Amino acid sequence: MISPSRTRLRGRPGVRRTASAAVLGLACGLLASCGGEGKTSLTWYVNPDGVEIFQEYADSCSTDDYDISVQQLPSSATDQRVQLARRLAAEDSSTDLMNLDPVFVAEFANAGWLAEVPQEKAEQILSSIEGDGDYLTGAAETVVWDDTVYAIPQWANTQVLWYRKSLAEAAGLDMDQPVTWQQIIDAASSEGGSVGVQANRYEGYVVWINALVEGAGGSIVENTEAGRDADVTIGSEAGQKAAEVIQSLAESPAAQPDLSVSNEGTVLGPMWSDPGEFMVNWTFVYKNYEGQVGAAGGPEDDQAFEDLGWARYPATVEGEESRPPIGGIDIGVGAYSEHPDWAAEAAECITSTEAQVDLALKAGLMPSTNAAYEEVASSGDYPEDLVELFRDSVDTGGPRPKSAFYATISNALQTQWHAPGSVDPSSTPKESATFLEAVLEGKELL
User: Fold this and answer.
1) Domain 15-157+327-388 is of which CATH architecture?
2) 3-state secondary structure of 144
């Protein structure tokens, strides 16, 4: 998100401990060292997902030479970017390690704010893009800019289609076959159900738009290495197909009442209000619902939980394979860290197979490597077909544009495509392309 940020939905038993750790991290960042005279403190800025596990690995990956202190970033991906960018632009030496939404990597690397990943690890990541390494291809591609590796994938996120099996069956929809957006909109409408998406004016909406465009065989922009001179292509037929899906849902009985302000958290509730919903959302959903069995707003009991189904992300165009969103978190080392070698060492430790497995089993945040996936699959904590769906969706998904100007691109699209009810296939894609070109050329302001 961004992999876009998600609302924390389960209990937060470690909040007090995490808050204390954040305060301690701040104190350590202001002082020369923490944890003992002469001992260095490395500051690790983390996003809100999986904070308790991050704290565990900050402790276990600390050494006799340094302690790792955790600082929690804001919940919004936009605010995360702003806070990190301000520190890095000021050449803040205390920004040693940071959790990066994949779309931050190109911008930060292009600005000279990230240290290059050491050669041996970089070669492992680059070989994975060619299919010869352990990292999932989709995850490995997120950390490369200008043929150089600037971060290490920690967890790789993707979206799948979650649904009530009983709703799909009542609508006569065969979920063993690929389904299209129009099919699930029609199925939900016919049975009084709904379709859950992320359509507030934020990064999550751009994730949906991008996946629809990619699924129609197009892209928002091309030739992104050209920076402001990139080719804006959202005004194409693929953009029109994407707009048709958004318009269709917005005008259908399947649209949820809060469509224009919906996010990853708001769309969870309708699943267990009969007859249920079809919903696109990230990998955390399974563990979230599993933890809500018997609770208010969750599945009534284990039998009800078994009515939860999952399938590949819906196709934009019938007969064309969908391109599921790719998100997650990459670990970068700040270019101005006073201890880059130790920070690089710590980055390898906190992205280890063990750490990735813990994030998956405890927080529902799936791995970036095949080795970790194998351990998750053999744990019995997830249905095997769901684990394989996650892995395949990351490897065959459609990433958001890799551009040093991604924040500008995202904001321009949000301006033109929101609210969903205003989207018109005959005008919105072309008008947004014209506006985005003008913004990149400096002729329009956001």
Assistant:
1) 3-Layer(aba) Sandwich (3.40)
2) strand
